[in-house]
Design a protein that fits this description.
The structure holds two protein chains of two kinds.
Chain A lengths: L1 H26 L4 H14 L3 E7 L1 H17 L3 E8 L1 H9 L5 E4 L5 H11 L3 E10 L1 E5 L6 E3 H9 L16 E4 L5 H11 L8 E2 L3 H9 L4 E5 L9 E3 L1 E3 L6 E2 L4 H5 L6 E9 L4 H11 L1 H9 L7 H11 L1
Parallel strand pairs in A: 1-2, 1-3, 6-11, 7-8, 7-9
Antiparallel strand pairs in A: 3-13, 4-13, 5-9, 5-10, 11-12
Chain B lengths: L1 H41 L10 E2 L7 E2 L2 H32 L2 H15 L3 H20 L7 H25 L3 H9 L4 H12 L1 H17 L2 H6 L17 H8 L8 H29 L7
Antiparallel strand pairs in B: 1-2
Helix pairs in contact in B: 1-11, 2-5, 2-8, 3-5, 4-5, 5-8, 6-7, 8-11, 10-11
């Protein structure tokens, strides 16, 4: 019995040691992190404003980055960002669990009503970035472009081989998101215009889809443009219909001009007209500094029409 | 004085026991009362007719559970096919063959295996096992039922090993002595005498491991692909009942039909695990002396 206890202690110590060592090896580069945490906890003593944000998986990295930069410049504000999907964010906002919902799709009417019924507040929304939903395939796929209709037919399960759209003779594996995802809903309404094929693999996030397509020579997937860079995969050019030109979503002008057919704004929703720290955070995001972060994270800055749209919430 | 303490303690223990019954009844009640609105609106039949689970359909919602029940059983059966032989063999080794030192070394390791968070296993399945399976079977993607079955099997192993080892250790020493005295080899003794004598305990271990496998959510959700179509083989993607709830509960509108339909999924899952655990319980309470 005693011996066994010693052994347990020994094995756990070994594991802990190897963890510490692994941690040290990696921890050398982002050395600022612990310092940042210290700064935050000091801010706590002086009374912090805390903002809870949840929702869209497409937006989570971008908003986390925004929050970090904002907190560096503003002591006394603590912003927590989590993902889960647009649907999760909107449901949490309706339930009053969070302050800001990230959503890559507009709120539905019944959701707006539910929020009104629960909190008595109207919904206000801000567009803080522009996204071109990228249709991605394996880098070894010789195909370069598709029309929206062809992509829709693939996702409805009507086209099952790449040969039918001018590619090689290989079966198509369809990867998509889950119903909690704003991108799932956007893509269903804009491209699929019907039910997704029952054969579609439902994966949990943008990076899961990217990973799957990298490993699958016959795979097709969709993701936010901020995730569509890297080895092993490529974004297809997409044409609005047969006969029109196909556009590359990785080029800024194609998306901000709206020429790329799968362009969409990225939203943040709040209950009631924003004020205080939340308003200040929105102004930071939509301002020059925030828009630079948008570009660095692989998304595109908002256009004049989005600025016009935001006036309702921000003025 | 001691009599009063005795009484008070008796009541406290009685209340603790009752609390378990209360929790179980509470869970049953919540599942049932939240499922009933779905039954009232669409009836029982749509859940068990051919089709797919698609409550947030573009046009007409459908609610068939059949493909997901099938997916759940595929992952569970696959997991057990791997975990039962390995688990029983490991248990027999630990209790019958291993030296005391080996036993003391391996048992904590089994316990550590039980403590690995399921999300970590899921991640390993996604980045290590999936590409491996794709290469071995020459299929486009290793995100499938087999991947989930292997990982869930790994998760069920500690339960099976620990309980089966207890059952085998509990077999009276005279059995082994008698068998060896009659000239049986060690292998014959383990295979023909000890394991059959521990049969009811081992079956219970398997049943509890199965209960663990059926309800496992996170790992399965991450590696099986969650396809709603009917799977045709283990190399196909599947969606399980538990993964379906975990995926969809996040964004359903409270008290909507979809919300109540998810409770029906939970109810079905609960019934399945309840039956499995009940069977395990019956097996545990079967007298091991029947072999005498």
């Amino acid at each position: 019995m005693n011996r066994r206890m010693w052994l347990t202690v020994f094995v756990i110590t070994l594991l802990a040691l190897s963890l510490v060592m692994a941690g040290c090896g990696q921890g050398e580069n982002p050395g600022e992190e612990p310092a940042g945490e210290n700064g935050e906890s000091q801010g706590n003593d002086g009374g912090t404003v805390s903002i809870m944000i949840a929702g869209s998986d497409s937006e989570v990295n971008l908003v986390t980055r925004m929050a970090e930069e904002y907190m560096n410049a503003h002591e006394g504000v603590s912003i927590a960002v989590t993902g889960g999907g647009s649907g999760v964010g909107i449901t949490s906002l309706i339930d009053g669990d969070i302050d800001i919902a990230n959503s890559s799709r507009p709120m539905k009417d019944e959701e707006v009503e539910a929020l009104k019924a629960n909190s008595g507040e109207d919904v206000y929304d801000v567009r803080f970035a522009v996204d071109g939903v990228a249709v991605i395939v394996n880098e070894n796929n010789p195909l370069a472009e598709l029309t929206v209709e062809q992509i829709g037919a693939i996702y409805r399960g009507e086209i099952t081989s790449w040969a039918e759209v001018g590619g090689e003779d290989r079966e198509i594996t369809i990867y998509g998101r889950q119903s909690t995802s704003g991108t799932y809903v956007f893509f269903m309404e804009k491209v699929v215009q019907g039910d997704y094929s029952p054969e579609m693999r439902n994966l949990a996030g943008n990076s899961d889809i990217v990973e799957a397509v990298k490993n699958d020579a016959g795979g097709i997937g969709y993701c936010a443009i901020g995730y569509a860079a890297g080895e092993g995969m490529k974004a297809l050019l997409v044409a609005a219909d047969t006969g029109s030109e196909a556009f590359d979503p990785t080029i800024l002008e194609n998306v901000t001009s709206g020429d790329y057919p799968l362009t969409r704004p990225l939203y943040q929703y709040v209950a009631g007209k924003p004020g205080g720290a939340i308003l200040d955070f929105f102004l930071f995001e939509t301002g020059d500094q925030g828009q630079n972060i948008v570009l660095e994270e692989g998304f595109y800055p908002i256009t004049t029409s989005d600025v016009e749209f935001n006036k309702d919430a921000l003025q | 004085m001691p009599a009063i303490t005795e009484k008070i303690m008796k009541i406290i223990f009685w209340l603790s026991g009752m609390a378990i019954i209360f929790f179980l009844a509470g869970i049953m009640f919540t599942l049932l009362s939240n499922s009933i609105p779905a039954f009232e609106e669409i009836g029982l039949k749509p859940f068990f007719t051919d089709g797919v689970w698609r409550p947030s359909a573009f046009a007409e919602p459908t609610y068939s559970l059949l493909n997901m029940i099938m997916g759940t059983f595929m992952v569970t059966a696959g997991a057990l096919a791997f975990a039962v032989p390995v688990g029983i063999a490991a248990a027999a080794y630990l209790s019958e063959i291993a030296s005391p030192w080996e036993r003391e070394f391996f048992k904590p390791i089994v316990e550590i295996l039980a403590g690995i968070p399921s999300v970590v296993l899921g991640f390993i399945g996604l980045v290590v096992l999936a590409p491996l399976l794709a290469a071995v079977f020459n299929i486009p993607s290793g995100i499938n039922a087999l991947n989930g079955a292997i990982l869930v099997g790994v998760m069920a192993l500690p339960t099976i090993i620990t309980l089966a080892e207890d059952a085998i250790t509990a077999v009276p020493g005279e059995y082994r002595h008698a068998s060896l005295a009659l000239g049986a080899t060690r292998w014959q003794t383990i295979w023909k005498v000890t394991i059959p004598a521990a049969f009811s305990g081992i079956s219970a271990a398997v049943m509890l491991g199965m209960g663990r496998a059926i309800g496992e959510t996170m790992t399965v959700l991450m590696v099986t692909g969650n396809m709603i179509a009917r799977p045709t083989s283990y190399l196909d993607s599947v969606r399980t009942l538990s993964a379906n709830i975990a995926v969809e509960i996040g964004d359903v509108v409270f008290n909507s039909l979809h919300f109540h339909a998810l409770f029906v999924v939970g109810l079905v899952l609960f019934m399945i695990t309840f039956i499995v655990n009940l069977m395990a319980d019956i097996l545990i309470h079967r007298k091991p002396e029947v072999n005498r």
